[in-house]
Design goal:
The complex is a heterodimer of chains A (about 160) and B (about 220). With about 160 residues, chain A is an alpha+beta fold. Chain A has 4 helices and 6 strands; from the N terminus they run E-H-E-E-H-E-E-E-H-H. The radius of gyration of chain B is 17 Å and the shape is globular. Classes of the chains: A alpha+beta (about 160), B alpha/beta (about 220).
């Protein structure tokens, strides 16, 4: 296996748990969408109103944003900034660390307030921490794998896309 | 390998282009962006300074399509080449699945190449990753310039090889991309392994897809092993 990235896999039941937690949070906080992005810049889950932007680009920028701020925190003597808030005129976003491996992004507008989002997000983050810790513990013991034949088929697609 | 998302049936792999400043990392991504069908790639995001030097990273997602039920995607990143952006260079390596080192072939840039290579090893080590065991490809760019060093000189300086300690791997392994050359071979009684290398002129696209395809295939192999 690759010695680079730490591997983990994300299953249907994980998705159900996350949807349940975020669904309730979005209702209580009156926020628009909740996104889970992993720290390497990959979108893991999206709940609530489907955003109009490109989620892939959004995820990579979110991870970069959070990582850059993590380093800034260390420079001023803090172990981390557990959460970040970006305020816009109408749309705002609140980012919170989950289990040191993924980021919860809450998108909200003028229909709610930062105070309410912050109040409700604590419970959601606490519950999500547990879900992800379970997930990482499980992934630590088994290497997720693709089915036989996947690599060959993917190589064929590569040749098609980039020229044989 | 980073993550298989069974819920959304997606596999995403992260490739990072590393190397000295003005070596052609962003040019590689721009060429891929311009040549791959728009349906198979996303937007090219560049966090650059006003003078178009990469400040944080460039990012380009490329879709392989749905393979055996999984939407398979490569995320291509570049890092800033300039040394004083090292903090952001390091951040981009987080979760990397494959690395392309883009070297500037010009003789005058040899020292910058060596410095960037050393910095890559250091930054990988700080994340706990080992460059000798993850998919890694070297691209010698700007081969068209009159002041380009020979590939032999570049190989000696940047890709001298690392020791192979596992007896099972101590056997001559031909380089699939260079006839008569070996990726694993015995040199002065010691078994060593080198990264695959490609010659390129990224400005006009020569070698760009060869490099990308090679590193992508190495990453795919790690998914199946």
């Amino acid at each position: 296996m690759s010695a680079g990235a730490s591997s983990w896999s994300f299953h249907e039941e994980d998705s159900h748990r996350i949807h349940a937690i975020l669904g309730e949070f979005l209702r209580e906080a009156n926020a628009r969408s909740g996104l889970i992005v992993d720290r390497t810049g990959q979108m893991v889950a999206m709940v609530g109103e489907a955003p109009e932007f490109d989620p892939t680009a959004f995820a990579s920028l979110t991870a970069a944003d959070f990582s850059a701020n993590d380093q800034l925190a260390r420079m001023i003597g803090e172990p981390e900034f557990g959460s970040l808030f970006h305020q816009g005129e109408k749309e705002s976003m609140y980012l919170a660390d989950v289990a040191r491996r993924v980021i919860l992004v809450v998108l909200f507008d003028n229909r709610t307030t930062l105070g309410l989002v912050k109040l409700r997000v604590k419970t959601a983050v606490h519950q999500l921490n547990q879900v992800f810790l379970d997930m990482f513990n499980r992934s630590g013991t088994t290497q997720p794998q693709v089915e036989t034949g996947f690599v060959g088929d993917a190589e064929d697609e590569l040749d098609k896309l980039f020229g044989a | 390998m980073s993550m298989i998302n069974y819920a959304s049936r997606e596999i995403n792999c992260k490739l990072v282009y590393y190397g000295p400043g003005l070596g052609g990392k962003t040019t590689n991504l721009e060429y891929v962006f311009n040549k791959v069908a728009p349906g198979a790639r996303g937007k090219l995001i560049s966090l650059a300074t006003e003078t178009e030097r990469t400040l944080f990273f460039d990012f380009l997602p490329v879709d392989l399509g749905t393979i055996r039920g999984f939407k398979t995607r490569f995320h291509l990143y570049t890092v800033p080449g300039q040394v004083y952006y090292n903090a952001s260079r390091k951040l981009i390596l987080k979760g990397v699945d494959g690395v392309v080192f883009v070297a500037d072939s010009q003789v005058e840039r040899m020292e910058a190449n060596i410095e960037a290579m050393q910095n890559l090893y250091d930054n990988m080590a700080q994340h706990g990753y080992n460059l000798t065991t993850i998919p890694f490809v070297i691209q010698y760019n700007k081969r068209d310039l009159p002041n380009a060093a020979t590939v032999k000189e570049l190989q000696a300086a940047l890709n001298p090889g690392w020791p192979v300690d596992d007896p099972a791997r101590q056997r001559p392994t031909p380089d699939p991309y260079h006839e008569g050359e070996f990726l694993v071979e015995q040199v002065d009684g010691q078994w060593i392994e080198r990264a695959t290398h490609f010659e390129a002129v990224a400005m006009n696209g020569d070698g760009v897809f060869d490099t990308l395809k090679a590193v992508s295939k190495l990453v795919l192999k790690t998914l199946g092993s």
